Amino acid sequence: VDVVAANQFSQWENVWAKDGVNTMFDRLKNIQASSRAAGKQILIAETGWSSNGSFPSIKEATPESSGVYLKDFLLFAEQQNLNFYYFSSFNLKWGDDSAFGLIEKNWGLFDQNRNILPHVRSVVVGKPQKAVRLWHNGLVIKVDGANTRTEGRVYLDLPTTGLTDSLDREVWFYDEDHKTFRSKSTNQCLDTFVDDAGVSQLHVYWCDVTNANQHWDFHADGSYEIVSVPQVEVAEVATTTTTVAPTEAPTEAPTDPPTDPPTVPPTAAPVNPLAKYYAECGDCRNCQFFTPYYSLCYANWGPRDCGLMPKSTHRWCGSLPAFVPVPPKAAPTRRPTTSTRRPATRPPQPTPSTAAPGVFLGPKASEVRVPVGVFVSLSETSPGKCIRSNDGLLQVVPCSFDDSTKFSIRPFETEEVTIKIAGTDWKITESFGRVVATTVSKVDSVHPDTQTWFYDPLAKTIRSKTNSQACLTLVEDKIHGAVQGRLCDADNEFQQWSYNDLTGQIYYMEKMGLCLATDGPNQPLHVQFCDIAVQNQKWLFELAHHGKKKQAPLPCEYNNQPAPATLAPPVQAPATAVAPTTTTTVAPTTTAAPATTTTAVPTTTAAPATTTAAPTKTRTRRPLPSPCDKNEMDANTTVAPTTTQRETI
């Protein structure tokens, strides 16, 4: 089996056209779960909406309803990475004109004479939406999807890592025109409502652009997060340091007679601060158009004209002066000397590092910043309220504009990832358009950005960072065809890839059943038949800028257990230790160890023996009282910090 084919005609299930795609998503849940686990893509073999006729199980069959379903389905198939056949191309000439017969004759996009139907021509899907993550202090907003016990739950958690089948939970499709966020895992939109108790709640619900509860305005506060920084310099090969033998100290030659002229070291050739711009512009002294493969130089353009062009493909080179390096000054010749003294010996010098082999950088990647701000609800029932984080929970409350309400919207196309074979260090590396899975580390002999990529699950592209306009492209349309870096083109079907984070496969979308693979380390990439048993098809996408999560407190039953009776009393500090300012009692678990000892005393284990070394001057912050036992804190005692609560200030 190469693919999983499915037919779905929601029109026959007595639903409105606006709910047709939602019904399809519900019907595909189990099929998607099974196909992903088997490493197979889904093909929608037939779907459509008739534009005429009537039947008891059909709620509407009109040109308008047919257009609504077509628009929604095209957006749905793009976001869910589905290949499909739409039923059907043409209306039928044969058949009767009964109510049921009209249903069967009017599934087409074109009429019987091959003219596009007016309701099809009027369909406008809209400008492309963006696949984004919604970040808050190193965590992302997620929604549990189908086949989970908590489907529809909205919460904060770390970004996904490894083969967990949870990437879809943190993928949101941002519609800038309607200010909505659609979850990929549920195909529903972020929504707020007021419950019976008058409290605003946050959840996901079937998307409806007319529903104000799903409209969110992002108010930037003026700050920003840097999510991608280009490494413009070439990494250097590690230098080899010469070790000096300790028994051979360098000798100094005696000074020459005062009649000898002083020795002047040769003047180094001047370093041009504009050298990197000369390397980019070459001989061009006007506006330059550039791509990863060639460049053109315009004539008679001004800086303003060049500035009006896209910065990703144009740069101004007309302000560079001609640079003629000044020859180095020769050192004066010393007068010959007849001295027999041994000249001075210099300490060995490390071998100068050499730049990495030529790496075609192409257009320079630019620093990517995303604004930080608050999500303000435009709901009629909760106007002016914001999303707030509260210990991993998300709430809709009056806006406070503090840190708990600050979020950022990061498009997937701006988030750096490395891609490697699972269980290995074979990272996909790009150089001069050639793409290999190499074991060479970033800090060795490759440019820091050659192993960094940007994966866009909506555009289905994998773009190089070092060649910022080059995408993974199948350049040989065959089994075992080579995959290399080529100029990104949204209309190039040979650049379409989709990632299955359960099996690790990267599907080639143009021809179903093919996956990205490699034959081994330092071997070029190619496509081959998908097989979950093949290790060299299992890829891991790892975020370069990963979040950090604060450790959750232990439950009360583990956080406040009494010390066992068999515990030995703590060993008192030696005479060399600084005496505590108060008298401590032996053995009670609620008495703090002296702050000057080198080891903190755990509350649930025997105190470790102290050392005779002088105590370190490390300050420890007094831990907060345990919420599980308030009575203990009422006593006139000091709580000993546990080893997990110690924090150096």
From TrEMBL:
Bias type Low complexity, positions: 242-254, 331-342, 594-616
Keywords (A to Z) from UniProt: Carbohydrate metabolism, Cell membrane, Cell wall biogenesis/degradation, Glycoprotein, Hydrolase, Membrane, Polysaccharide degradation
Disordered, as annotated region: 242-263, 327-358, 594-649
EC number(s) per entry: 3.2.1.39
Gene3D superfamilies documented for this protein: 2.80.10.50, Glycosidases (3.20.20.80)
Residues in Ricin B lectin domain copies: 423-542
Biased composition (Polar residues): 634-649
Annotated Gene Ontology cellular component terms: plasma membrane
Biological process annotations from GO: cell wall organization; polysaccharide catabolic process
InterPro entries according to UniProt: Beta-glucan_modifiers (IPR050732), GH (IPR017853), Ricin_B-like_lectins (IPR035992), Ricin_B_lectin (IPR000772)
Key word NAD present: no
Catalyzed reactions per annotation: Hydrolysis of (1->3)-beta-D-glucosidic linkages in (1->3)-beta-D-glucans
Subcellular location: Cell membrane
A GO MF term: glucan endo-1,3-beta-D-glucosidase activity
Broad EC category: hydrolase
Reported function: Glucanases play a role in cell expansion during growth, in cell-cell fusion during mating, and in spore release during sporulation. This enzyme may be involved in beta-glucan degradation. Active on laminarin and lichenan.
Protein name according to UniProt: glucan endo-1,3-beta-D-glucosidase
